[in-house]
């Protein structure tokens, strides 16, 4: 059986090298080309005709979402996996709208990464276990809800369901290891969620997070 031919598109060479290193002993996958920006990715794909594209969201010249959208139109047979640091519902929904076959956080484990590649290569879809399955299910059925409850503060409404879970655990005194164990995710993924959570709430440490939570009547 021929290996799944992959093109990597990420503006960070270190990330591309890491993925290549991860896949070098996986006989069912073969990285055939790389691209450092969106336009280069499209040029490479036109020449290589790969089976699958692994693409970052934020890249120079064209974003990953723009690349995915154009591929869906011009090269519909090429599978598309978005690999990102961002776990916001907005990015997930936009990726699906653009035609992505999967969305995975960069903090995911090697096992989950390979599982995603295998699922997509086989014709399926794969979205990180850290992305709310309800969002995916609703979107696939054409019933995604993008409006937010008016009663909810703007700061709270921008948090994903996973971030709200992690906020609750942090306020309960849980560290990254405890959060990871409680939610069955990797420590790295827990750290990414925690970083995004604190950035959205505009706090820099646990003390500020606790104070902000009091102001929002979360505790």
TrEMBL record:
SUPFAM superfamilies hit by this protein: C-terminal effector domain of the bipartite response regulators, CheY-like
Keywords: DNA-binding, Phosphoprotein, Transcription, Transcription regulation
HTH luxR-type domain sequence ranges: 152-217
SMART domains per the UniProt record, alphabetical: HTH_LUXR, REC
InterPro entries: CheY-like_superfamily, NreC/VraR/RcsB-like_REC, Sig_transdc_resp-reg_C-effctor, Sig_transdc_resp-reg_receiver, Tscrpt_reg_LuxR_C, WalR-like
Response regulatory domain mapped to chain residues: 5-121
Pfam families: GerE (PF00196), Response_reg (PF00072)
Superkingdom, taxonomy of origin: Bacteria
Modified residues (4-aspartylphosphate): 56
Annotated Gene3D superfamilies: 3.40.50.2300
Protein name: Response regulator transcription factor
Natural source organism: Algoriphagus oliviformis
